[in-house]
Specification:
The chain is mainly alpha-helical and 954 residues long. It is 73% helix and 1% strand.
Length: 954
């Protein structure tokens, strides 16, 4: 080993431990360079094994080994670690069970587990060495360290999810479960004996028992598919119940030894997690243990004797265990039990129903509401000291980690499973508080709060039992108007409960009274902090709150209010336009708060409509940052930023330079594709509708490139989105747009003819509102508005395919006419007829004349669908729109107006088909001459000719 290099690495590691940022930076640079050098990790191993060195240097060395293993252990990794060096590392690691420093020992265990996860089959000596050390070592440190490594290895292997890996893990479980179970039994017996003897070694014994139990927990969850009632896993689970009872008694006795009491609490939690995890992963195998599990939970949660021994985290685990048993689908037999119904399910259901008697259910529900629902003194203190944090915590806690939230979920689960028994109990408790006299006693108020909480949670189950309107008018309203400081608990809860009931059973005539009270509560003396009108109050509350979560909640309510009032938001826009930019600047790295701001701005733009242009100075930079994929915040802001971008364009009255400049972000977004493709093309369409000349002049190239790249390489749904944009471009700009998009149109034409029309046929045949026949629509629009461009495209395709123009045109017409019956939208069918009939008098090619009868037949077919004769004999076309047809009281966006104007100028909507066909046939008569024309008309089916005459001769 190069001594100079060793010294350099040692120096770099020591600098990496220093407090000097410049030394740390230089050390990290050097270590980064060395991490791909052969022998570097062997050198780190030697440094780590040298216990004479400073512990911080050894700790940094093991960290760099761990990071290097993650990057370079796999054979396929660039600069992968050589097999020789891997062997050296593994040989030294399995002799490192005597590490004296806990933090370093933990990192060694993690390092070994990572190597095992990536190549256990290449390390066959790992498990034998571990188990031998655990089994034979007389040194407590060696045994603890080897168990620590075993725990991390098992934990890492259990996380693998591929089928071969899971099978391998089950084999490992089969090999070691019995031994680990015996080890746990012996270490636990030793723990109990040492505790009774008041031996100082009890903590070390407790740690060994904890490590073995952690290993058993992973093995029983992931190492079995199922197990029998007499199997070793059941033996473990049965022992867990006994150990919980004993350890809880020990824990209660250790009031003066906080360290031991805390470790005993963690051990009890681990024991209950074994039960919970086993039930969640092996519900049917767990069913024989349902009865003792439910008894355990009931005795400790709902009896006075058991409640003396529990602590909050253990109570939470018991609630979780009871809840998952109550709601487990595997314990619910079908309504009609047959011979084929598994007996395990039937027995489990019988056990559950036998346990939850009306008496037991009544006691559980009463205890949940009166013991676990009320606010505690700690809650009230938190409310006083930090109201924002109190509300935020309450809103954001998961039932799996918060006792009150878990008791609420258990309550709802019992109500769902045993509605007929639980509902009368809850109703009785509600009626008791309804009839109780007013009181300032805090205990009474907190119990009322708890009952109101139960009533609000169960609103959908109690709507037939409770007359909420009468209750609100006769009692709750008076409690809301009680300004006593103590009554703020009830004021808060009544408002919340009213929110739970308002969509269930809350009369409209009662709601104005509630709204008045809400505004009254939003004054400076209440916890919601300010002003006299709802919008102004929310705005000032937004300004005065400090917590980001609270600001997000207020912004959500503001957004909802803006959505509901629509254009009536305009008087408040000035306030928001002043404050939201300030909030945006101060939000810094709080990306979720910025998401809420962007979402609020989207709704504000919708409400302001064309007046949103006054906020471009804020909106445009906001959109630019949110949609710039080179900026880290785009990960959080992109989706909302795209929505805002589109809404700004939809409500814009004209193009501006700043709006146009935003499009520089779009090419990178189009390369991302995925779920944002739809809205990205929607934005492109909005740009085209807003100002096609400026947009196409500046940004047609990236749009064309994106279309060429995606055509044929995306799913049909994506092709439909893309094709709609191209159609809009051609409609809005038939001359310039067609010229710029010739490469795209050529590729589409080529796909139609060359790829056996598979993609084309799929798109052609789709009958949805936005997709039916998009591809031929391109050419229909071009024929109507830019016929020379159509001929140019056909000639180019013929040249590319080395075919005659006649052959290419014939093939297109055959496909078009053949698939016309697949079109479901009348607009598409009419456009097809308009474009094909347009070709007839142009004398383009003999192939068109050959299709004369088929084209006219198609025209008659569509005429049958859209031709109408109104009263008075007036002939009309049902697709023709008049200027005033869309006049109504509804407010329309600027883009809707643009689309409406485009629609009115579209031949499909402005030209009666019967008149168009008549005029084109007259042109044919002039172009072909009398003799040829009569010959072509004679080729028509007699019935078709008669029907045609009926349509056009009137």
């Amino acid at each position: 080993m190069n001594e100079a290099w060793r010294d350099a690495v040692l120096l770099a590691l020591s600098h990496a431990c220093s407090q000097d940022p410049s030394l740390i930076k230089e050390a990290e640079r050097k270590l980064k360079t060395w991490e791909v050098e052969p022998g570097f990790y062997s050198l780190l191993m030697l440094i780590f094994k040298n216990e004479s060195l400073d512990v911080n240097i050894r700790w940094i060395a093991i960290l760099y080994m761990k990071n290097g293993v993650e990057r370079y252990w796999r054979k396929s990794a660039p600069h992968s670690i050589s097999e020789e060096e891997k062997g050296f590392m593994k040989q030294n690691l399995i002799t490192s069970f005597d590490e004296p420093v806990n933090q370093v020992a933990t990192q060694v265990a993690v390092l070994i587990s990572k190597i095992a996860r990536m190549g256990l089959r290449d390390w066959p000596e790992l498990f034998p060495s571990l188990l031998k050390e655990v089994r034979e070592s007389k040194d407590p440190l060696h045994q603890q360290r080897s168990l620590l490594v075993l725990n991390h290895v098992i934990k890492m292997l259990a996380s693998k999810r591929l089928i071969p890996d899971r099978q391998h893990f089950r084999q490992i479980t089969s090999d070691i479960f019995g031994f680990i179970l015996q080890l746990w039994q012996s270490t636990t017996a030793s723990l109990l004996e040492l505790y009774q003897m008041k031996d100082m070694r009890v903590l070390a014994s407790l740690e060994l028992s904890t490590l073995t139990l952690k290993v058993l927990r992973k093995l029983i969850i992931h190492g079995f598919t199922e197990f029998e009632p007499t199997s070793q896993p059941v033996c473990l689970l049965q022992a867990v119940f006994e150990k919980i009872k004993i350890i809880l008694q020990y824990r209660k006795a250790e009031t003066g030894n906080h360290n031991l009491q805390e470790k005993l609490e963690k051990y009890v939690i681990l024991l209950t997690k074994v039960l919970i995890d086993t039930q969640e992963h092996h519900a049917l195998s767990f069913s024989p243990l349902m009865q003792p599990s439910l008894e355990l939970c009931y005795n400790y949660l709902f009896t006075s004797q058991g409640q003396e021994n529990i602590f909050e985290k253990f109570a939470l685990q018991c609630c979780k265990l009871m809840k998952i048993i109550v709601k487990c689908d595997m314990y619910k037999p079908p309504r009609e039990i047959k011979d084929t119904t598994p007996q395990e399910i039937v027995k489990a259901h019988q056990v559950k129903m036998a346990f939850f008697t009306p008496t037991v259910l009544s006691e559980i529900v009463r205890q949940l509401i009166l013991r676990y629902f009320p606010l505690t003194s700690e809650d009230l203190e938190s409310w006083e000291s930090d109201p924002e944090n109190f509300v935020s915590e309450e809103a954001g806690e998961s039932w799996r980690y918060n006792l009150r939230a878990c008791t609420e979920v258990l309550y709802l689960s019992l109500l769902s499973e045993f509605r007929s028994t639980v509902t009368p109990v809850v109703t009785e408790m509600i009626k008791l508080v309804q009839g109780s006299p007013p009181s300032d006693d805090m205990t009474v108020l907190l119990q009322k709060d708890a009952v109101y909480n139960a009533c609000g949670l169960a609103s959908y189950d109690l709507f037939d039992e409770i007359d909420f309107d009468q209750w609100f008018t006769n009692q709750l309203l008076h409690e809301l108007n009680n300004s006593s400081t103590r009554y703020k608990v009830l004021r808060r809860r009544v408002i919340w409960m009213s929110g739970q009931w308002i969509n269930v059973k809350f009369a409209r005539q009662t709601r104005p009274v509630l709204y008045q009270v809400l505004l009254k509560l939003m004054n400076a003396q209440e916890d919601l902090v300010f002003l006299d009108e709802s919008f102004g109050s929310l705005f000032h509350l937004l300004k005065c709150t400090q917590d980001c979560d609270t600001k997000m909640h207020v912004l959500y309510v503001l957004s909802l209010l803006i959505q509901r009032i629509g254009s009536k938001v305009q008087p408040f826009a000035a306030l928001l336009s002043l404050y939201l930019p300030e909030l945006w600047q101060s939000s810094g790295d709080h990306n979720m708060l910025r998401c809420a701001i962007v979402s609020t701005m989207t709704h504000l733009v919708e409400g302001l409509g064309v007046l949103s242009r006054n906020m471009y100075s804020f909106l445009v930079p906001l959109i630019q940052l949110s949609t710039d994929v080179s900026q880290p915040p785009h990960i959080y802001l992109l989706e909302d930023g795209l929505d805002l971008w589109q809404n700004v364009l939809v409500n814009a009255s004209c193009m501006t330079a700043e709006l146009l400049q935003l499009f520089v972000n779009m090419p990178s977004l189009l390369e991302l594709g995925s779920e944002n493709l739809r809205i990205c093309f929607g934005i492109i369409e909005s740009y085209v509708l807003l100002d096609q000349r400026q947009f196409l002049q500046n940004f047609s190239a990236p749009v064309v490139d994106a279309c060429l790249r995606m055509l044929g390489n995306i799913k049909p749904e994506g092709g439909i989105i893309l094709s709609r944009v191209v159609e809009t471009i051609i409609k809005v700009s038939p001359l310039t747009g067609t010229e710029l998009f010739v490469p795209v149109l050529l590729k589409i034409f080529h796909m139609i003819l060359e790829v056996e029309v598979k993609l084309f046929t799929y798109l052609f045949c789709l009958g949805t509102h936005s997709s039916s026949g998009h591809l031929p629509v391109y050419y229909g629009e071009i024929i109507l508005h830019n016929y020379p461009a159509f001929i140019h495209i056909v000639e180019n395709v013929a040249q590319q395919l080395s075919k005659q123009v006649t052959d290419v045109l014939t093939q297109l017409l055959d496909i078009w006419l053949d698939k016309m019956d697949c079109m479901t939208r009348l607009e598409r069918r009419k456009l097809t007829v308009l474009s094909l009939v347009t070709l007839l008098p142009l004398n383009v090619n003999k192939c068109v004349i050959d299709k004369f009868a088929i084209i006219v037949d198609a025209a008659v077919d569509v005429l049958h669908e859209i031709h109408r004769v109104e009263d008075g004999g007036i002939h009309t076309d049902c697709l023709v729109l008049l200027v005033g047809d869309d006049d109504d009281d509804e407010e329309h966006t600027e883009e809707h107006k643009r689309k409406r104007q485009l629609c009115l100028s579209d031949p499909v909507n402005c030209c009666p088909l019967w008149k168009f066909v008549r005029d084109k046939l007259q042109e044919c008569h002039s172009v072909y001459g009398q003799e040829t024309f009569q010959y072509l008309m004679g080729c028509l089916d007699s019935a078709v000719a008669t029907q045609l005459a009926t349509f056009i001769n009137h």
